[in-house]
């Protein structure tokens, strides 16, 4: 899941971003509306957390641009005003949700995850395929009843591969959705993460490499009782 945080209070923006990254999300940060406008045009974010009162380009204008744009980005609007009229006006602009400051971080996380599930195509809280069960809320993964201790990036990659409607998922999409803007696009981090993920998933292998296209999860026979071999099945 990739999230854009737009907040002109830098300490708050950085704290939100740090907390969301701790929840396994890829997060970019902007401190003004103009920078956010360019990011929103360049990237297909799952959720944008927007402060309503921003310099240069305001949160209201940003929300209008998101709604009119080509992406399915969901908007969570932050504001110091908690009045009914303000909430109604924010939602009328096209915001998907509204959260008044100060807020509990746990509530922010829950709302961001709920909005991400509403992005097209809608993703259920539990993803299942090829004997794998991935709980997006509890951040747990099982295969054949066996718990798999995945890293945050391995979890994010697997979630992308299991999302509804996913066929072949390119390395470029994985970089966009699981990592943030600071990642080098020429890096081999996707290949390395895929290698460790395959090892943890064990036998029989279910992640197939489609040359020139990306990766896909295929149905496989029942999981064997033996432990993972550690072989890289690229």
UniProtKB/TrEMBL annotation:
Annotated region of DNA binding: 124-219
GO biological process: one example: regulation of DNA-templated transcription
Response regulatory domain: residues covered: 2-116
Keyword line: DNA-binding, Phosphoprotein
Keyword DNA-binding part of the UniProt annotation: yes
GO molecular function, one term: transcription cis-regulatory region binding
One Pfam family cited in the UniProt record for this chain: Trans_reg_C
CDD domains xrefs: trans_reg_C (cd00383)
Name this polypeptide is given: DNA-binding response regulator, OmpR family, contains REC and winged-helix (WHTH) domain
Lineage: Bacteria, Bacillati, Actinomycetota, Actinomycetes, Glycomycetales
